[in-house]
């Protein structure tokens, strides 16, 4: 009886001392070393590696609560240089972090100094989001391309925040509907 009570007490003491710490440690390993309560938004590895950039991250970096941009250390520089540039423009420091203990697929996160009030969590996948907005698949899939006037207009009407991911054909580009990727197989 006495032993039982003692072990219960011990168990409670142990949980008190280590339980939450272990939970927090697991949580931090899922968010690149940050407490979840500090994470404003994040992208998965697949999202960071897309050709297109996520304009949501640019917005989040403008937030008054944004304090740092954290990027997993194994992500190639070509995928992240624009995100780093955005952070610099906003005076937000960035860290690259790696640990064999990291779990999950978070590859880029914007975090606050402390617990934040606005949390967006995982940013929705771009393709799905833009399909819902009614943007043509040819435009969605060809991020980085030069668009003709008509496709540019469609982009500006349906998803203007995506203009960072395309170039508008100028008069010297001699681009017509016939060779604009956005117009193919429409
Ligand atoms: Zn076009």
UniProtKB/TrEMBL annotation:
The biased composition feature labelled Basic and acidic residues covers 1-15
State the superkingdom: Bacteria
A Pfam family of the record is DUF1694
- Which InterPro entries did the record assign? DUF1694, Ribosomal_eL30-like_sf
Where are the residues of the annotated region Disordered?
A: 1-21
Q: What is this protein called?
A: Uncharacterized protein YueI
